[in-house]
Specification:
Helix content: under 10%
CATH topology of the largest domain: Jelly Rolls
Largest sheet: 8 strands, antiparallel
Number of helices: 4
Distance between the termini: 55 Å
Structural class: mainly beta
Strand content: 35-45%
Mean pLDDT: 89
Oligomer: single chain
Shape: elongated
Length: 716
């Protein structure tokens, strides 16, 4: 026994899984009666707080947490792999042949009514034709996912539904095991769909049982769930056409990659799906929202479930089970350019959790109930509760969002030692989309990254990458300071402007600290200045105006313009975002760390097509450092440009239209040489103190919009 325990402990360590007590989560087993099947296919919470569970042996049993006892509610089901509670005396179950409503009509605690809601999908008798679900929406409809068949075995002579005689005649499936293995199975395809809607997610009307084919392209979609907004998510397992396991945001009518299901698309008149070129399939398919890197994150992801508020600091995110490890995974999803994508990270590894986490549900006390299974694969069995007690704080990643130049990350606890961020590593890779089983990590590369604080909380940081983003790549982080160091973000879309994931807020006291400098189309946060004084006029000149969020300087009119300056004058460590439209041949600028005589650093706003002085071109640090050669303003007077300034301690950075175009370190040799060769060489204490933000009147028309600022923390 000692040897076995040692081997088990070594196995946990190899997976990075702990058997110690988690600082804020407690795992307790739910006792199942001896001699009873312990493989869980479905679980849900009844209105009275009891737990209904479907088991592989075909029973539905009810567990009473108050008495810790079980009772048999129903039996005789065929491989039930999902369950929804309809009331204290009724459940709806997906079993292999149908969606069934099971009810106790006489109140004796045992079901006496088994009602077929829908059996309109096909069955060939292949062992791999599982049915998963059901997931019930707010309108009372059910979503069910249907496995494709496996060429590990043929089909039975008695089938249900239309037979698809495509690529391989039906009689070829009725051969001996030896003949099947000797070559017929290759013609069938590794996974095949010969009866209706195998490889599909279907929607079933809860009132009349009518089935609607919803989306295609799945292999083994063992898990369905809704997020807080009602988006449908479906997991799928690695195999042919799946380089690694995936989570899909599923929408009606879309194809998600596995071609076996395509012939059941309405109006399909194409060839055998195995003959469709990969390039054509690539055009048709919708990529996954999240990749679960095989062996690193998960081998067989299962059911996603929404986290309720109060379960730690992760309310509104989702969890998903994993069959092949003692692991539950947390999902951190966001929408970028209308596409759902995001990250996955271990949530709970070991700590008394068994393998084979097949089904998850939260009860009324916000405890997580987990059910395990294995069938013929690696896994486990039994049930457990996971309770958040919050007795001890711990460090982890609370949120991560993509930006045009990197990411923004929020930690659960403040980073007390900023130097520890230098230990964070990042690599990225992608996977092949091909007929072969799985894919290795390809085009793998390590990336350099740099952290900058976003506020003074010590929790929020910008991660700037030394290389540009790549679409359809998995970004694998290792955060050594986190309880769960591993985090993988799947990049599908890249924001056009930086920090696009953050809400544009008008509230200076919000989580991100942004202040809208043109709030309510007002210039109340501004005053006038002159070339030599930042206090000349308390009011802004009438040539400046704000309408519909656009600040305009119109020099065609008569009256006073002049530089305008923020009334707040203590900006030193900050981020400033803005859009500008400069007139043809026009000149303006955004100045910061401005002294009493309005001398300071300047982000050039300039139509530089005719300029011969690169240190004065658009986005330059005026008269000090030119931007990169690629920097160029869009059409003057016609198109908006996006500017961004981050000044933190000695670090000064300028962005133009999403690209970092100027970077210099205050006080460095480069800085000293630049100042010595500039008009500022005789300015005492140049740009060394806090100051206001200044927008220049250089005699030309200019417009600004989306002008916002936030103070951030320096780690120097």
């Amino acid at each position: 026994m000692k040897t076995c325990l040692t081997i088990f402990s070594l196995t946990l360590l190899a997976w990075g899984i702990s058997s110690a007590q988690h600082p804020a989560l407690k795992v307790d087993s739910i006792r199942i009666d001896p001699g009873k099947d312990r493989q869980v296919g479905g679980i849900d919470i009844l209105p009275n707080g009891k737990i209904a569970a479907a088991f592989h042996d075909g029973e539905v049993r009810i567990y009473d947490p108050a008495t810790e006892t079980w009772s048999i509610f129903a039996s005789g089901l065929h491989e039930p792999l999902g369950l929804v509670a309809e009331g204290n005396d009724s459940v709806t179950v997906v079993q292999r042949p149908e969606l069934t409503r099971i009810t106790d009509t006489d109140g004796d605690g045992v079901a006496d009514s088994y009602e077929t809601i829908c059996d309109d999908f096909g069955l060939s008798g292949n062992y791999h034709e599982f049915a998963f679900g059901p997931l019930k929406d707010k309108e009372g409809n059910y979503f069910v996912s249907l496995n494709v068949a496996s060429n590990g075995a043929p089909v039975r002579e008695e089938i249900r539904g239309e037979w698809l005689n495509l690529g391989l005649p039906r009689e070829d499936f009725y051969v001996s095991k030896e003949e099947w293995k000797d070559g017929v199975k290759i013609k069938a395809g590794r996974m095949y769909s010969r009866v209706p809607y195998r490889g599909w997610v279907v929607k079933i009307d809860g009132k009349n049982g009518e089935m609607t084919p919803w989306a295609s392209g799945f292999r083994s979609p063992n898990g369905l769930g809704f997020d807080a907004s009602g988006k449908l998510y479906v997991s799928d397992n690695q195999g042919d056409w799946l380089g690694t396991s995936k989570l899909h945001h599923v929408e009606k009518g879309k194809f998600y990659g596995h071609p076996a299901s395509l012939p059941w698309t309405e109006g399909y008149n194409g060839p055998n799906p195995l003959e469709i070129p990969v390039a054509e399939l690539e055009k048709m398919r919708t990529p996954a929202a999240v990749w679960f890197t095989q062996s690193t994150i998960a081998n067989s992801p299962t059911q996603p479930v929404l986290i309720p508020e109060g379960f730690g600091k992760f309310g509104g995110q989702m969890l998903i089970g994993e069959m092949n490890k003692s692991r539950i995974i947390r999902l951190l999803l966001e929408e970028v350019n209308g596409v759902t994508q995001g990250a996955c990270t271990p949530f709970l590894d070991g700590h008394g959790l068994d393998m084979g986490i097949n089904r998850l549900v939260f009860d009324k006390e916000s405890r997580l109930i987990a059910g395990s299974s294995h069938l013929s694969w690696p896994g486990g069995e039994g049930m457990a509760t996971i309770t958040f007690h919050g007795e001890k704080t711990y460090q982890d990643i609370q949120a991560i969002n993509i930006t045009s130049s990197g990411f923004e990350v929020t930690f659960l606890e403040p980073i007390t030692d900023p130097a520890s961020l230098k230990e964070v590593t990042l690599n990225r890779y992608t996977f092949d989309y091909h007929e072969s089983y799985g894919s290795s990590q390809i085009d793998k590369e390590d990336l350099e990254l740099k952290f900058s604080p976003l506020d003074d909380s010590g929790k929020q940081f910008a991660i700037e990458l030394a290389a540009s983003h790549k679409k359809d790549f998995c970004y694998e982080f290792n955060f050594p300071m986190a309880y769960n160091p591993l985090l993988c973000y799947t990049v599908r879309e890249i924001p056009e402007g930086d920090t696009a994931s953050l809400p544009a807020t008008d509230d200076p006291d919000d989580d991100y600290g942004w202040v809208n400098l043109l709030k309510n189309d007002s210039l109340a946060l501004w005053r006038n200045g002159s070339k030599t004084s930042r206090n000349k006029h308390p009011d802004v000149g009438e040539l400046w105006s704000v309408k519909d969020g656009v600040l305009s300087l119109d020099k065609s009119k008569k009256g006073r313009g002049g530089h305008i300056i923020t009334k707040q004058d203590d900006y030193f460590n900050f981020e400033l975002q803005f859009e500008f439209m400069i007139s043809k041949g026009g000149n303006s600028g955004v100045k910061y760390r401005v002294n009493e005589q309005t001398v300071g650093l300047e982000y050039q706003v300039f139509d530089d097509k005719s300029s011969k002085v690169t240190k004065n071109t658009v986005a330059a640090l005026y008269n000090l450092k030119a931007p990169t050669a690629e920097s160029k303003a869009k059409k003057p007077g016609k198109e908006w440009n996006t500017g961004r300034i981050i000044a933190v301690g000695k670090s000064l950075k300028h962005w133009l239209n999403g690209d970092l175009v100027m970077e210099i370190e205050f006080g460095s040799d480069e800085w000293k040489e630049a100042v010595a060769n500039s008009k500022f060489k005789d300015e005492s204490g140049f740009a060394s103190k806090p100051g206001p933000i200044l927008l220049q009147d250089h005699g030309d028309d200019v417009k600004y919009r989306n002008l916002r600022i936030r103070k951030i923390m320096s780690t120097e």
